[in-house]
Description:
By secondary structure, the protein is α/β, with parallel strands linked by helices. It is built from 11 helices and 11 strands. The strands form 2 sheets. The chain has a 7-stranded mixed sheet with strand order 3-2-1-4-5-10-11, with helices on both faces. Strands 7-8-6-9 form a 4-stranded parallel sheet, with helices on both faces. Helix 4 (107-118) links the parallel strand 4 (100-105) and strand 5. Helix 7 packs across helix 8. The chain is elongated, with a radius of gyration of 22 Å. The chain starts with 6 loop residues before the first strand and ends with a helix. The structure holds adenosine-5'-diphosphate and 6-O-phosphono-beta-D-fructofuranose. The site of 6-O-phosphono-beta-D-fructofuranose (F6P) has 9 residues, from loops.
Amino acid sequence: MAKQVKTIGVLTSGGDAPGMNAAIRAVVRTAIANGVKVKGIMRGYAGLLQEEIIDMESTSVSNIIFRGGTILYTARCQEFTTPEGQQAGAEICRKHGIDGIVVIGGDGSFRGAGKLAALGVNTIGVPGTIDLDIACTDYTIGFDTAVNTAMEAIDRVRDTSTSHERCSIIEVMGRNAGYIALWCGIANGAEDVLLPERYDGDEQQLINRIIANRKRGKKHNIIINAEGIGHSTSMARRIEAATGVETRATILGHMQRGGTPTCKDRVYASIMGAKAAQLLCDGASNRVVAYKNGQYTDFDIQEALQMKKDIQEDQFEIARILAL
Ligand code: ADP
Ligand code: F6P
């Protein structure tokens, strides 16, 4: 029979994402409803190693569901990637009476959670990243807010781009993943979408398409470029030189990672946080909460980390067809 859990911890790790606070709130209140104490671990694994650990009550998470960012702060921590760092983390958990931890973050954070689980600290991962690049789940906390923020910003750039009959290269976040770029490509009716997963660097093709679009009477060209491809400013200069069309670059940057979470992010993050806390209270460990094929579910951490995910080719094709 599973050992009765008395105290759990919660931390956020890696890049922050709008909705993380809703997940923290759900973890805290679900644990308390189960008669389990909660400790907040500040600044991810870095704060764990520094023993930045606070007691959390139901009121500690009042008035946060609508706030972007994470009240627990977040960090990246090189030391925790070493066996010594992980051992130290597990010992600190034992010292503070923490039987289990909910880790809200991305794949890197789940790798750390898997290591803690192997050292006897029960762990449950909750997918939190604006990039949507966690293979085991169709939803990650923050993507919906980020993509809506980017979409609204791109609409604004589009207005001025049309008025001046310009070409606009708009860079959205996503170092390795083009989900924000692809969704904005479709939602903003962009003429071109450059994804890290697909772009082969053939700028001449891009230039040819801009020239062809102008000949067909288009008044502007909106090109969504993912951060992973980058170089938007120099790309704009080269496009202007090659096409004669005035071209500007806009890099949206971290504004996509902040701001008040959408309804979807608040609700999904709340449900995932609650399910993660419940799993810990029921004695589970080494699992990741996911939303797959319309259902909330959970996976073994190592199995989840081995899963693969790619941009769906038909969606990329639809973005291209609709741009014509
Ligand atoms: P994300 O969780 O968003 O993927 P990172 O890849 O930056 O973000 O990982 C967040 C943190 O998780 C890292 O700073 C590190 O402390 C921890 N981490 C990443 N990879 C590992 C690993 N292989 N083993 C243990 N901890 C890891
Ligand atoms: O959170 C994901 C992400 O926003 C990526 O799209 C981006 O490449 C990365 O984080 C940037 O992180 P930071 O600027 O915090 O190092």
